[in-house]
Specification:
146 residues; alpha/beta; globular; Janus; Janus_sf; Sex-regulated protein janus-A; sexual differentiation
Length: 146
């Protein structure tokens, strides 16, 4: 985690206000939730890697899942996350996409499909991340369907 903000640390040494920037960026990284998906329905999702800026040799990173029914394209979902990352001095990479079927009444999710623009996400990894928030859900993965 320390290296993610290496450049900010260099700045902090040069000027006292830099320590505040380092702490703010670290808090921003930690505050980004692993999962943010719509509460119900069938919608597109993307698997995104979040990490420090490119000048850091040993970056800390985390994978997050985002899925929203109001986004027509997978790229719309990713652009939302990119904006959040940029505001917080972080970088991101979309690792792929698919669809999620979310039925909260049955405590069930199905992760499947692919993104024409980003390719297929690792649905098993996406399931693992979803389970951090939806611990009592049955979450199924399949490579079938679009």
């Amino acid at each position: 985690m320390q290296c993610v903000f290496k450049n900010l640390l260099k700045s902090a040494v040069a000027r006292p206000s830099g320590i505040r920037s380092l702490k703010m960026a670290s808090r921003a990284f930690d505050s980004i939730p692993l999962v943010d998906v719509d509460k119900k329905g069938i919608f597109k999702y993307v698997l995104i890697k979040i990490y420090g800026n490119e000048d850091c040799a040993e970056t800390s990173e985390k994978l997050v899942v985002r899925g929203y029914s109001d986004c027509k394209f997978h790229s719309d979902i990713y652009e939302r996350m990119m904006e959040i990352c940029k505001k917080n001095g972080l970088d991101s990479q979309c690792l792929g996409g698919g669809r999620i079927e979310h039925d909260p009444e049955k405590k069930y999710m199905k992760v499947y499909g692919f993104s024409q623009g980003f390719g297929k996400a690792d649905h098993v990894e996406s399931k693992r991340i979803l389970q951090t928030k939806y611990k009592d859900y049955e979450i199924e993965t399949t490579d079938e369907g679009y």
